[in-house]
Amino acid sequence: MKGQEWYQADDVAEEYDDKRFSKGGQLIDRREKQAVLEAIMPVEDRNILEIACGTGRFTVMLAEQGADVVGLDISAAMLQQGRTKAQRADLAGTLEFLRGDAGRLPFPDDHFDTVIAMRFFHLADDPEAFLREMRRVSRDQIVFDTFNRFSARSVYNWALPMGSRLYSKSEVSELLAKTNLTLVDVEDDFLVPYGLYRSIPNALASPIRTIDTAVGGNAVTDHFASVSYWNTRLR
């Protein structure tokens, strides 16, 4: 996995949410959570694993909605941030954080209803192997996102701390076929790069987001979206 050491640093974990999901980044956070909830609904009583859960943005949200959730991450520092969030939250379901390797999940086959992986596959050195492991422990559904090859992200990808693996739609379709997953739905979003949203106040980012959403809502511009949200089921 790319960036393992970087993500495990205490200072990175402490500043992670503030740097990415404050200012206009709040719009990114809101959209990602919406994508996850829409894919999984109804959430209540669902047994969910999130791999690479980081600071627990999704794990805490899903537990608040009544799911029984396990969040797994390689970074002890990130997990500590998640535990702090969980202590402040009013959880309707259960939530457990575990430190572990997404390539060797410490769970039996068919253990979870749903497995999710957000902000993960852009770091994967062997996406097929990770997806197979996710499929092994899921009995129903896998939800994940990818950053896209034909987007503005490709222009500045080299400048990121560890870069990103960028995907074409055909590459993801091939991954799904190899791992015996059926595509239920895919949503494409964010013509404007994440970096711009994060760098400006929310008051400026909101009108940009309105235009982004309007322009991006057609089949032609979908090909240039920064991110795709994939909802898949086991065959």
Automatic annotation (TrEMBL):
Residues 49-139 form the Methyltransferase type domain. GO terms for molecular function: S-adenosylmethionine-dependent methyltransferase activity. Its EC number is 2.1.1.-. Keywords: Methyltransferase, Transferase. One of its GO terms (biological process) is methylation. This is S-adenosylmethionine-dependent methyltransferase. It comes from Natrialba magadii (strain ATCC 43099 / DSM 3394 / CCM 3739 / CIP 104546 / IAM 13178 / JCM 8861 / NBRC 102185 / NCIMB 2190 / MS3) (Natronobacterium magadii).
